[in-house]
């Protein structure tokens, strides 16, 4: 009998503790979209992307020229095999350059994106923490990253408070 009561108490205790917890939600994506730094970062990334796209277009045009030269030589039976082989090598090298440039550009864009967005996300997280601490919440769920199937009426949405904390 005592074991049953103890077992019931152990099973019910976490439920009672959870009922005491103050839980809130926030939509960090909404906050992020309202940040003025986001537009600046996106403009910087767009300019860099445009620069890479111009360079890639030039590399692609050079490759297309080399490929057209190779096709002209490859279909001409009077062209020596050495010239055909050299043109094929140029096409293969051009293709490797295109792929290497594309990969390096994508990696650099991602690195720059991470570097530009990190301070914005850190400011948002600091504001969420500050609002959570001020309201003495035990748990703040981010609906942008954590799917919330249901939030009852006792759950408070702190999105507006976080935006106000950031001066938005």
Number of helices: 5
Q: Under the CATH scheme, which architecture would be assigned?
A: 2-Layer Sandwich
Please tell me how large the radius of gyration is.
30 Å
Into which percentage range does the β-strand content fall? 5-15%
Strand order of the largest sheet: 2-1-3
Structural class: mainly alpha
Domain tally: 1
CATH class descriptor: Alpha Beta
Can you give the helix content as a percent range? Answer: over 70%
Q: How many β strands by DSSP?
A: 3
The sequence of SSEs as H and E is HEHHHEEH
CATH fold name, please?
Protein Binding, DinI Protein, Chain A
Which outline best applies?
rod-shaped
Query: What is the CATH superfamily?
Result: Skp domain
How far apart are the termini? 59 Å
The whole-number mean of residue pLDDT values reads: 89
């Amino acid at each position: 009998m005592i074991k049953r009561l103890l077992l019931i108490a152990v099973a019910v205790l976490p439920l009672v503790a959870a009922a005491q917890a103050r839980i809130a939600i926030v939509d960090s994506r909404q906050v992020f979209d309202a940040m003025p730094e986001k537009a600046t970062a996106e403009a910087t990334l767009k300019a860099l992307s445009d620069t890479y796209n111009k360079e890639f277009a030039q590399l692609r045009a050079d490759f297309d020229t080399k490929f057209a030269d190779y096709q002209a030589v490859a279909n001409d039976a009077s062209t020596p095999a050495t010239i055909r082989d050299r043109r094929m090598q140029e096409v293969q090298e051009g293709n490797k350059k295109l792929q290497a440039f594309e990969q390096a550009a994508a990696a650099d864009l991602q690195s720059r994106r991470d570097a530009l967005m990190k301070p914005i996300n850190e400011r948002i997280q600091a504001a969420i923490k500050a609002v959570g601490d001020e309201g003495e919440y035990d748990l703040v769920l981010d609906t942008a990253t954590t799917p919330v199937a249901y939030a009852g009426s006792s759950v408070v949405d702190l999105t507006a408070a976080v935006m106000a904390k950031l001066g938005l």
